[in-house]
Amino acid sequence: MNHVLNITATNTPAVVERLLQVTRYRGYELAGLQLTPRHDAKSLNITLTVSGDKPIHLLTSQLHKLYDVQQLELAGSELAVLSA
Amino acid sequence: MKGAELVLQVLQQHGVDTIFGYPGGAIMPIYDALYQSDVKHYLCRHEQGGAFSAIGYARASGKVGVCMATSGPGATNLITSLADAMLDSVPVVAITGQVSQAVMGTDAFQEIDVLGLSLAVTKHSFMVRSVAELAATLHEAFAIAQSGRPGPVLVDIPKDVQLAEIAYQAEHAKASKAASVHTSLANAGKARALIAAAQKPMAYIGGGVHMAGAMSQLQQFLTANPMPSVTTLKAMGSVAKDNAHYLGMLGMHGTQAANLAVQQCDLLICLGARFDDRVTGNLQKFAPHAKVIHVDIDPAEINKVRFAHVALLGDMKQILPAISAGTNCADWLAQCAQLKQQYGWRYDHPGERIYAPLMLKQLSERMPDNSVVCCDVGQHQMWVAQHMRFSSPRNHLSSGGLGTMGFGLPAAIGAKLARPQDTVITVSGDGSFMMNVQELATIKRFRLPVKIVIVDNQRLGMVKQWQQLFFNERYSETDLSDNPDFVALAAAFAIPGHCITRKDEVESALEAMFTWPGPYLLHVCIDDKDNVWPLVPPGAANEEMITEAKA
């Protein structure tokens, strides 16, 4: 199942590698990647599409922890939102 | 001043007076600045050892550990230790030199992509591109290492940045502090309801409790809500020694009472732990009757491997009092007390050879209060966890998540420097000891009175045990009967030692070790046939423990 993640991240040299490393390590496949610098070039708008059989919250909760990730929204598939 | 001097100023702003490292080409400007600095540098003999010392320092003290290495091989040698810190959530800042930016990306001498290497083994990492951002980056590194769930942070600093001039006044710069933790008590009522209704509650305590500084809140919680408790390897020492309901470590080599009770409980209160596979055994069969309350600082641990009926995120110090509801489970407490009694350790080992569990119990009883014990990895590590008692998790440093052989000796160096007044003991195996044996030179150089106990079965014992049980006794590459003479080896580093082989030698040998004012190596020879029991075999549920009698 494909999941589309809309991410705003600080534009640091390794930020895309970090996203992809976590995606791969946590067991999801990359199905699409788009990135555009925001106006000030300090941040990036990233659309990350991943596929995987595991619940997507297992990935989003790990991506959220990346220091460069400012915002992360799941668009286009269900997300088991933590009630905590 | 130069960037290199700024690095040391920022370290001092963060209260760092002790660092571990090894010089080399790309970090020479920082070592030059060290030459006249008040920051005390401890020269390790391998960067992995230096970073383990930083981890030992951090874990024994609760402060941030700092280590340094040069580019290329210096930095790659740090990787294992950073991974260890990552998996055990240890706050470490690693500073690496990098080749100058002018040659970066050309496969220059001792150049490797350290930022790239760091991604999987750090909480975060930085490459500093300009001296103007150096101070802010270092402040951020300290803040990230300590914030939330702690972890290692790497700062890679090119040589030209170290050499660049900058006007910097430390007093004007504000050292950023660890970010405060957002705590939600929204689910506290649900947790209290579950606790009040439980007939068989169980506290499953992990390293997150003491790392949150919530030791006293834990004791209050266990007093106000009497229930049996178990701990993970990292949390040994969390439960007060006089708590009668404590059942010991759970999991693969946990106590039978702990494992059997957890399997029967109807409410599992997981406090700062993460349902690691060495804890749960077969996950589907783990605590099958239990509802779960999961308290953690890391949202990613909630529902990662085990569904939590109620989750509370944030500061353990605030959450524990908020979920106190009172328990009423006298029958269950009696049942667990019965299990504890029935499955207590036995030390009536026949023969005159040394029985490691008994020797470690004797060591535990004889060591001064508040001693720090640093383990390596393998059979001796599990025996330490089973047979020694600790008054705080800061007194038991063991590589848990990564299970890194070679951890113990350098971690003990760091622990001794963090807590010079306390006795520090390394308990190592003959396999693990050789993995960072070069750090004996560090002990010699700084005359560190670290006590070293080598439990020697002339085998890679834990692997041998698995070969015996699960690989048809095909002992592939686990025979170490050609070990060096460990006492002679220690003597080469001016460390006295003694070798014992018989039970009746243990007490006097321990006495001699503790009486000797300096470092000391006690070589304890044991039978290679002794194994760690009980053992939950791979894929089995935790109640399906193999014991010595059954094996």
* C-alpha geometry of chain B: globular
- Portion of residues in beta strands of chain A equals 35-45%
Range of helix content of chain A:
10-25%
Query: Structural class from helices and strands of chain A?
Result: alpha+beta
Features of the shown structure:
heterodimer, A: 84 residues, 4-stranded antiparallel beta sheet, 2 helices, 4 strands, 23% helix, globular, B: 551 residues, alpha/beta, Rossmann fold
Give a description of the structure.
The complex is a heterodimer of chains A (84) and B (551). In chain A, 23% of the residues lie in helices and 40% in strands. Chain A has 84 residues and is of the alpha+beta class. Chain A has one domain. Chain A starts with a strand and ends in a 9-residue tail after the last strand. With 551 residues, chain B is an alpha/beta fold. Helices cover 36% and strands 16% of the residues of chain B. Chain B has helices at 3-13, 28-34, 47-61, 73-87, 114-118, 134-146, 159-163, 188-197, 208-211, 215-224, 256-264, 277-280, 316-322, 330-342, 356-366, 379-387, 408-418, 430-433, 440-446, 461-470, 486-492, 506-515; strands at 18-21, 40-43, 65-69, 92-98, 124-127, 152-158, 201-205, 229-231, 246-249, 267-271, 291-296, 310-313, 372-375, 396-397, 424-429, 451-456, 497-500, 520-525. The mean pLDDT of chain B is 97. The A-B interface holds A 13-14, 17-18, 21, 25, 57-58, 61-62, 64-67, 80, 82-84 and B 115-116, 119-120, 123-125, 127, 144, 184, 186-187, 298-300, 302-304, 311-313.
Task: Give a brief rundown of this model.
Chain A is of the alpha+beta class and 84 residues long.
